[in-house]
Amino acid sequence: MKASVIGASGYGGIELIRLLSNHPDFELQAIYSSSKENVPVTEDYPHLAEICPLPLTKIDPVAIKETSDVVFLAVPSGIATELAPQLAGGHAKVVDLSGDLRLKETDDYKKWYKKEPADRAFIADAVYGLTEWNRENVKTAKVLSNPGCFPTAALLGLAPVVKNNLIDMKNIVIDAKSGVSGAGRGLSPLVHFAEMNDNFRIYKVNEHQHIPEIEQQLAWWNKDTAPITFSTHLLPVSRGIMATMYAPLTSAMTTEEVYALYVETYKNDPFVRVRPSKQFPGIKEVAGSNFCDISVDVDTRTNRLVIVSVIDNLVKGAAGQAIQNANLMFNFDEASGLKGFPMYP
Ligand SMILES: NC(=O)C1=CN([C@@H]2O[C@H](COP(=O)(O)OP(=O)(O)OC[C@H]3O[C@@H](n4cnc5c(N)ncnc54)[C@H](OP(=O)(O)O)[C@@H]3O)[C@@H](O)[C@H]2O)C=CC1
Ligand SMILES: CC(=O)N[C@@H](CCC(=O)OP(=O)(O)O)C(=O)O
């Protein structure tokens, strides 16, 4: 199957190139950029030498749509709003990595992204691809909206207890940290070396655009849903997200009981690894891989459950999950092209 990547000069784009170049079922046939034409991608990214010989090409949605079986969009929010509808509706399937098609309430998109939303009906038809929890819909999707990096880590961690009504939905706190590649390749004072290195900062306090995305999925799972507290911090590392979730249990449970529930829930999911008690995951343990590692612990003094979930923001949080979804959309093995192990140390 022929795959194309738009936004191929960004961090999400080059991660798609890395993974698709080693994929047995997709052939990466073209890569697109809005700022560069006929320039080998290796000029900016020499690590792709002899891996990806393709030049960056000007974006022509009509031609891309006709020549591709699947188009991955790794462009900033606001751009997919325009491009995705132009690419959809024909032979090609579309996988969008941005936030543009995730929020079914278009007013939420306006409020949190501060941009004009895509057409409501188009968004309604886009399938939200939190793979482990929406496989059947993903399989038939023509337009796939890939989850955000923080929502992926947080929701995979929360799902078993939220779906089984085991935590107080009115008291969920999600405390998340991300490496700087989560912000893309563009520079800003927040990710400037001198300000980020040797430092640790909270950002977008109570106004992060992933808040409505997480709340939307929690509401689909549990009718008692309520606003969450969600905070994001910048770690002075390149890759990785750790989301630590805190919530009171609705009735007393032991760590062993909660652990058993998680093991049972994720026993058939190739990319979710539930850690044994007290073996809390670090971000390095999933770096470069499509794994999400989860650990749980009950604080018996407060009856509060602590859930720790880690992913690589560029893999399970972006390009890896996008390919996992595309695999299902084309009836390939879900793990095809994604079997690379984490890099450690
Ligand atoms: N980084 C991460 O960990 C994650 C990112 N995402 C999402 O994936 C998308 C890509 O992110 P990321 O790769 O990090 O960002 P980057 O800033 O690194 O890359 C953005 C890409 O979009 C292209 N682009 C910029 N403006 C336009 C335009 N007007 N038309 C078409 N293309 C344009 C840029 O290339 P050029 O200027 O050459 O066209 C570049 O290739 C974003 O929506 C992001 O929110 C989602 C999950 C995680
Ligand atoms: C470290 C960092 O800055 N991360 C970004 C993640 C952005 C992202 O992935 O945006 P969408 O999912 O909304 O497209 C942030 O917190 O905004």
UniProtKB/TrEMBL annotation:
Its EC number(s): 1.2.1.38
GO MF annotations, alphabetized: N-acetyl-gamma-glutamyl-phosphate reductase activity; NAD binding; NADP+ binding
Reactions accelerated catalytically: N-acetyl-L-glutamate 5-semialdehyde + phosphate + NADP(+) = N-acetyl-L-glutamyl 5-phosphate + NADPH + H(+)
UniProt keyword Translocase, yes or no: no
Any one of the GO CC terms: cytoplasm
Keywords: Amino-acid biosynthesis, Arginine biosynthesis, Cytoplasm, NADP, Oxidoreductase
Superkingdom as given in the UniProt entry: Bacteria
Pathway: Amino-acid biosynthesis; L-arginine biosynthesis; N(2)-acetyl-L-ornithine from L-glutamate: step 3/4
Locations listed in the record: Cytoplasm
Active site (record annotation): 149
Residue ranges constituting the Semialdehyde dehydrogenase NAD-binding domain according to the UniProt record: 2-141
Any single Pfam family the record assigns to this protein: Semialdhyde_dhC_1
InterPro entries: AGPR (IPR050085), AGPR_AS (IPR023013), AGPR_dimerisation_dom (IPR058924), AGPR_type-1 (IPR000706), NAD(P)-bd_dom_sf (IPR036291), Semialdehyde_DH_NAD-bd (IPR000534)
DNA repair listed as a keyword: no
GO BP terms: L-arginine biosynthetic process
Family annotation (HAMAP family): ArgC_type1
Described function: Catalyzes the NADPH-dependent reduction of N-acetyl-5-glutamyl phosphate to yield N-acetyl-L-glutamate 5-semialdehyde.
Family: Belongs to the NAGSA dehydrogenase family. Type 1 subfamily.
Alphabetized PANTHER family for the sequence: N-ACETYL-GAMMA-GLUTAMYL-PHOSPHATE REDUCTASE, CHLOROPLASTIC-RELATED, N-ACETYL-GAMMA-GLUTAMYL-PHOSPHATE REDUCTASE, CHLOROPLASTIC-RELATED-RELATED
Protein name per UniProt: N-acetyl-gamma-glutamyl-phosphate reductase
Protein species of origin: Domibacillus mangrovi
